[in-house]
UniProtKB/TrEMBL annotation, chain A:
Compositionally biased spans, kind Polar residues: 144-158
Cofactor requirements of the protein: Mg(2+)
Name of the protein in question: ditrans,polycis-polyprenyl diphosphate synthase [(2E,6E)-farnesyldiphosphate specific]
Compartments (UniProt record): Endoplasmic reticulum membrane
Coiled-coil zones: none
Top-tier EC class: transferase
PANTHER family in UniProt: DEHYDRODOLICHYL DIPHOSPHATE SYNTHASE COMPLEX SUBUNIT NUS1
Organism: Drosophila navojoa (Fruit fly)
SUPFAM superfamilies: Undecaprenyl diphosphate synthase (SSF64005)
Annotated Gene Ontology cellular component terms: dehydrodolichyl diphosphate synthase complex; endoplasmic reticulum membrane
Family statement: Belongs to the UPP synthase family.
Substrates-to-products reaction catalysed: n isopentenyl diphosphate + (2E,6E)-farnesyl diphosphate = a di-trans,poly-cis-polyprenyl diphosphate + n diphosphate
E.C. code: 2.5.1.87
UniProt key word S-adenosyl-L-methionine: no
TrEMBL record, chain B:
Residue stretches spanning the membrane: none
GO BP field: polyprenol biosynthetic process
EC top class, as a word: transferase
Gene Ontology cellular component list: dehydrodolichyl diphosphate synthase complex; endoplasmic reticulum
Reactions performed catalytically: n isopentenyl diphosphate + (2E,6E)-farnesyl diphosphate = a di-trans,poly-cis-polyprenyl diphosphate + n diphosphate
Protein name per the record: Alkyl transferase
Keyword Nucleotidyltransferase listed: no
EC code: 2.5.1.-
Keywords annotated in UniProt: Magnesium, Transferase
Lineage: Eukaryota, Metazoa, Ecdysozoa, Arthropoda, Hexapoda
Keyword match Magnesium: yes
Family the entry assigns: Belongs to the UPP synthase family.
MF (Gene Ontology): ditrans,polycis-polyprenyl diphosphate synthase [(2E,6E)-farnesyl diphosphate specific] activity
């Protein structure tokens, strides 16, 4: 009985210590973020940092997904624009954003600063082709391309980094609910020749579901290969259960500063990992 | 090597276990991606199969720690459908190991009953060799009345296959029955979730993956939307009780912050159940048929 009491006391003490450590760590991260922001403002050339980082990478993701946790309060339009520009510099052509926050609670609507694709409903382009920023970007990037030396991998070497980014906004309705929606549609036409053909073999049904999901998502892009989770803990928050099965997740703790260096570090980690595809 | 090891704790380990247990914030369900067996074997210049065998021994230790910590459900990723791409020699070696372990399990069912352990194999077991199907079905049927610790073994499993199987069972729902067919409005996430292999399990509170990989490799993609993901660099055969306890502490830190999201998910699930007439006789009969068909299949496989 006495021992039980001591264990409980020590358990509570452990929880208090962890909470205190967590609080101090968060304060430290905010302080560090403030200092880093000032430093970046005055002198850091993020473009050259990224282009030098690029030369050491063996592979780049084609599709990057950003997951913003419901507890995050630091991801805003400015940060997203910054990340988009990093992705554009290194030559990642496709980017998706899954913001789990609600309107009025930090949720960022991409339509505020991205241009909607005229042909595809869910696809945006960044930067907007009409914006002054886009024109400036192009001029700078051309300059960047000229000075780039020895970059031989990914898209950075073939010049596609000058293109606009294709950006997709993922919502909760695109995740589990969309699979249910596809199932609903298949069920309604279950007597049709097409669905009966799918039911002959499970792989055919899998391919059919994939095609229907991609059509609904407006995805003509590869599945996300890299995910950055902005949250205090690593969690997918239900992100595209059909599509992110082989996505490499990296968590950027809420509150810490995200700059070109952080982005390069994530890319390094991604480049180092080996996908075995079951083999 | 038994399925539950006779792990001998040191005094310090016992205290740590007791202290964590006394906090009451223990996950109910942990899913393990046991990665790194082959890399471990390479680093020790062992045969690949020996690496997998050491991995199994570690699983027995981990199960012991889970039982002693009061964890109710453990899911492990043993063999992916993608693993059929490996060399025939390795796949056959893995099947032999599975045959040996399931045979051992059937010999020691009294010990499993003593701990109240129920074995459930999730995955497309029809892809496995017939004798292995028989072992698996017998083990599942033999332990089906135990309810203290649920051990789900994902074997010939991928999450995409599981989701496809769930859709398939809905599409074929009115083929074999004269009962009232499902209404299209019954079909939503809640119903699909109930058609997964894990239909009687709560979603994992934590996913623990070893060997430094930070992907999920098509494991429980549907179920882990509110799970804390814990990645560690240690190879599976090398994990120690301290690695395990560190993951529990990490979970305890994250648990409070996840609670709001989790309760939102639960509320959403309840609303879906209401909207889709989930509790109607029609839907419940359909789910009952799924259970009955799965059990029938197990009985047929066990008697092969």
């Amino acid at each position: 009985m006495m021992m039980q009491f001591i264990y409980q006391l020590l358990g509570q003490l452990l929880i208090i210590c962890i909470a205190a450590f967590d609080l101090l760590q968060q304060l430290w991260l905010r302080l560090h973020a403030l200092a880093s922001r000032s430093y970046d403002y005055w002198q850091c050339d993020q473009r050259s940092l990224l282009s030098s980082a690029l030369s050491g990478l063996e592979k780049l993701p084609k599709h990057l997904v950003l997951v913003v946790g419901p507890d995050d309060c630091y991801v805003d339009v400015a940060l997203l624009k910054r990340i988009f520009s990093y992705a554009q510099i290194v030559g990642i052509p496709y980017l998706s954003v899954y913001d789990t926050r609600t309107q009025g609670n930090g949720y960022v609507d991409l339509s505020l600063f991205c241009q909607l694709d005229e042909k595809r409903e869910r696809c945006y382009h960044w930067p907007s082709s009409s914006s002054k920023h886009a024109k400036e970007q192009k001029v700078i990037q051309n300059g960047h391309k000229a000075t780039q030396n020895g970059t031989s991998n990914g898209y950075a070497s073939n010049g596609t980094h000058q293109r606009q980014l294709q950006v997709y906004q993922i919502s909760r309705a695109d995740c589990h609910a969309l699979i249910a929606d596809v199932c609903h549609e298949l069920y309604e036409s279950r007597k049709s020749v097409q669905v009966q053909a799918m039911l002959e073999e499970r792989q055919k049904l899998t391919n059919g579901i994939s095609a229907m999901l991609n059509q609904r998502l407006g995805f003509v892009v590869p599945e996300p290969e890299l995910g950055i989770v902005f949250s205090r803990q690593t969690c997918t928050y239900g992100l595209l259960p059909w599509h992110v099965r082989f996505t490499e997740f990296h968590t950027h703790r809420s509150g810490s500063y995200f700059d070109a260096k952080s982005f390069a570090q994530v890319l390094y980690k991604y480049a180092r990992c080996e996908q075995r595809w079951g083999k | 090597m038994s399925w539950i090891s006779d792990y001998r704790y040191t005094c310090l380990q016992k205290w740590a276990l007791q202290i964590l247990h006394s906090t009451g914030r223990i996950p109910n369900h942990i899913a393990f991606v046991m990665d790194g067996n082959r890399r471990f074997a390479r680093s020790k210049q062992l045969d690949k199969i020996e690496g997998h065998s050491r991995g199994f021994s570690k699983l027995a230790d981990v199960l012991r720690w889970c039982v002693d910590l009061g964890i109710k459900e453990v899911t492990t990723f043993a063999f992916s459908i993608e693993n059929f791409k490996r060399s025939n020699e390795e796949v056959e070696g893995l099947f032999n190991l599975a045959r040996e372990k399931f045979a051992k399990l059937l010999e020691e069912t009294d010990r499993l009953d003593e701990h109240g352990i129920r074995i459930r194999v999730i995955g497309n077991i029809l892809l496995l060799p017939e004798d292995l199907q028989r072992h698996i079905a017998t083990a599942m049927l033999r332990t089906e009345h135990n309810d203290k610790l649920f051990l789900n073994i994902a074997f010939a499993y991928t999450s995409r296959d599981e989701m496809t199987q769930a859709v398939e069972s809905i599409l074929k729902s009115d083929e074999t029955s004269d009962d009232e067919p499902l209404h299209p409005s019954d079909i939503n996430e809640r119903l699909l979730e109930e058609c997964l292999y894990t239909r009687h399990s709560p979603p994992p509170d934590m996913v623990f993956r070893t060997s430094g990989e930070t992907r999920l490799s098509d494991f429980m993609m549907w179920q882990l939307s509110s799970s804390v993901l814990y990645f560690t660099d240690v190879l599976w055969p090398q994990i120690t009780i301290w690695n395990f306890l560190a993951s529990i502490v990490a979970y305890q830190c994250d648990r409070c912050r996840m609670e709001r999201f989790k309760s939102g998910e639960r509320l959403h699930s309840t609303q879906l159940a209401k909207a889709g007439e989930f509790y109607s006789l029609r839907v419940q009969k359909f789910l009952h048929r799924i259970d009955a068909n799965r059990r029938k299949l197990l009985i047929a496989l066990a008697s092969n």
